[in-house]
């Protein structure tokens, strides 16, 4: 049995594998507006975001729920803010890229008009607008196959395309520009610089990222679930989760 007691004003207290968490102490809490307790069942974990509203796992009771106001708030809390905490970690490069590429893909699909269809030259052209270092639509297409397809399907770089044609080698380094093509034609990416440009591009054109023309891929929001999901979830208070 694990019994840990720490500062009751906002951290964790493990007792019989039950985790209690409260918001950090603040003047509002002393007036009784904050600090309500969240109870999470055994072996679950609490995901901390800007809204403090989304525990993960089964058997969740929430005494207080606060949702974020907009897709922009969610974007900052779930993606931009999380990435910011990883930029200085030289070992986080692959994780950073595996978040940055889907964000970039959503944006480029909307910007190019490809939406949910197969990628084409319109997509590659928009990619060169964000990363002109790629030089051409042809190189942009190869770059996308090496990094996006490789990392998101196999957590490594693709060496051949779908037709079996060899691709340039891919590298990740914290000592180069955001994107660089060396004299051998190999691709190099600096994860943090790459992700920062992706985030900045999206923030400056966020309406496009929201994807008003992609009804089948709407951005998630925080909602109170109207039904009970999973073993042990109390029927009187359904869990909060991310949904459309």
Question: Can you give a write-up of this model?
Answer:
- There is one protein chain.
- The protein is of the alpha+beta class.
- The protein has two domains: 1-66 and 219-244, no CATH class; 74-213, no CATH class.
- It has seven helices and ten strands.
- The chain has helices at residues 27-30, 71-84, 93-112, 121-130, 137-154, 191-203, 206-210; strands at residues 3-4, 12-15, 18-21, 38-40, 60-62, 170-172, 179-181, 187-189, 221-224, 240-243.
- Strands 1-2-3-4-5 form a five-stranded antiparallel β-sheet, with no helix packed on it. A three-stranded mixed β-sheet has the order 6-8-7.
- A hairpin with a 7-residue loop joins strand 1 (3-4) and strand 2.
- Helix 3 packs across helix 4 and helix 3 packs parallel to helix 6 (191-203).
- It is globular, with a radius of gyration of 22 Å.
- The two termini are 39 Å apart.
- 23% of the residues are buried.
Strand proportion, as a percent range, falls in 5-15%
Helical proportion, percent range? 25-40%
Q: Structural class of the helices, strands and pairings?
A: alpha+beta
Radius of gyration: 22 Å
Number of domains: 2
SSE pattern, N- to C-terminal: EEEHEEHHHHEEEHHEE
**What is the CA–CA distance across the termini?**
39 Å
How many E strands? 10
What is the general shape?
globular
Q: Low-confidence segments, ≥5 residues, pLDDT <50?
A: 1-65
How many H/I helical runs?
7
Q: Kindly state the mean pLDDT as a whole number? A: 77
Give the strand order, joined by hyphens, for the main sheet.
1-2-3-4-5
Largest sheet: 5 strands, antiparallel
